[in-house]
Amino acid sequence: MNAANPIIAAIVPSDVVAQSRECMRCGTATEMRFYGCCPACTEALYLKFPGEGRAVEAEAYEPKMNVTPNAVAVKDD
Q1: How high is the pLDDT of residue 15?
Q2: Angle, CA of 43, 30 and 46, to the nearest 5°
Q3: Is residue 71 situated within a structural domain?
Q4: What is the tens place of the pLDDT at every residue in 48-57?
Q5: Residues pairing with 30 in the sheet
Q6: Is 27 part of any domain?
Q7: Angle at Cα 19 formed by Cα 16 and Cα 24, nearest 5°?
Q8: How confident is the model at residue 41 (pLDDT cuts 50, 70, 90)?
Q9: In the chain, beta strands by DSSP E
């Protein structure tokens, strides 16, 4: 539950009824549950920008040692 706004936390996406809404990309009125792109625009965007995943190799992170320790860090107990 969202303690800040319990009304938003109570909304279940599957319970939202489709309404006639304008597509934010082409302006066509389409039955959609949420405001956004219509199904035709969504398909066109997926074809134009295919988000193919790939593996990226990176070196292991090693922190720089160019910071001098302060008096509290080196204080003997």
Answers
A1: 78
A2: 10
A3: no
A4: 998 888 888 9
A5: 21
A6: yes
A7: 105
A8: very high
A9: 19-22, 29-32
Residue 77 forms part of a structural domain: no
Longest distance between any two alpha carbons in the chain, whole Å: 71
The sign of the dihedral angle between the CA atoms of 35, 41, 44, 45 is negative
Long-range pairs for 47-50: beta carbons < 8 A, 24 or more residues apart: none
Alpha helices by DSSP H, listed for the chain, are: 6-9, 39-48
User: Is the model's pTM score more than 0.70?
Assistant: no
Q: Which domain holds residue 21?
A: 15-48
Domains identified in the chain, total number = 1
Q: Which two tokens stand for residue 73?
A: 């860090």
Chain centroid to Cα 56, Å, comes to: 21
Nearest to 18 by CA among 2, 4, 31: 31
Residue 53 lies in a domain: no
The phi, psi pair for 21, rounded to 5°, reads -130, 155
